[in-house]
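Request: Have a read of the protein record below and say how the chain folds.
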Amino acid sequence: MAMHGPSDTPAFAARAKKQYGQHFLHERAFIDRIVQAVDLAPGEGLVEIGPGQGAITFPLLRRFGALTAIEYDRDLVAPLGAAAREHGALSIVPGDVLDVDFSALAADTPAGRICLVGNLPYNLSSPILFHALDHAAVIRAMVFMLQKEVVDRMGAAPGSKVYGRLSVMLQAYCMVTPLFDVPPGAFRPPPKVDSAVVRLLPRDAATVGIHDRERFAGIVRAAFGQRRKTLRNALQTVMAADAIRTAGIDPQSRAEQLSVAEFVQLANHPPGD
C-alpha cells in the first residue's frame, strides 16, 4: 500500500491523549479510501465512532450531508461541533460508545437502519465489535479501521494460527471483508503497529441459523478458552462428549479445526443428547 498523498490539516488543534489510545489519521489518500468504502442507502443513518479531529467526519459530511458522531473525549466535542458547521449537519453524542444504544439511533432514521464507520481505539476494538453485534439487526454495514492484527483475526479461516473466538463470532453474524492496510505514518502520532480497514455486512437473521445466541457464544468461548485442549475437554462443563459426537463433530478435534458452520451445528445440538 504505497498510497501516500497530501495530509489534511485538522480544523482545530488537539493533542492526542495516550490514555484514550488516540492516533489521529491525517493522510488524505487513506481518508478518501475510507470515505469511498462507506455505502449509505436512502433513509439510513450514518454513525461515526471516535471522530477525533474530524479527519473522516468532515469528508463524510460533505458526501452525505449529515451524521451522528460518538466521542468519548469531551475536550473534542465543542471544537469538533464548531468546525463541522461548514461541512454539514453533525450531531455529537458525548460518552462511551459501549453505553450507546445503536437500536435507538436506528429507530430515529426513516429506514430504521444505520451504518457504522470509525477509527476504533485499538485497546477497545473487541468490546466495540461485540457491542455492535448485539445490535446487528439494525446495522446494515460497518467500515472500521483497526489494528491489522485484529483485522487478520476477524477474517481468518479455520486452521489458521490467528483463527479464534473473534473470527467465529464475527463471521457467524457478518460477512467480513478486509479492504486495505494503513501504515503507521498515516497517523499523528504514529502507532507502533500497522492498521487495516475492514468492512462487515451483518447477515440477515433468517440466514444465521443460530437457535440460541447465548449458548452459541458460550460454546465458542469455552472451545477457544484453552486452545490446546480437545473439544471433549474444553467443553466438558457445557456439553458431553457423546453430545459432541452425535452433533456430527469429533470430540478429539480442537477448536481451531472447526468451521463457523460446525460451531453453529454444535451449539444447536441439545447438550446431553
Notes: The two ends are 51 Å apart (CA to CA). The first helix runs from residue 28 to 37.
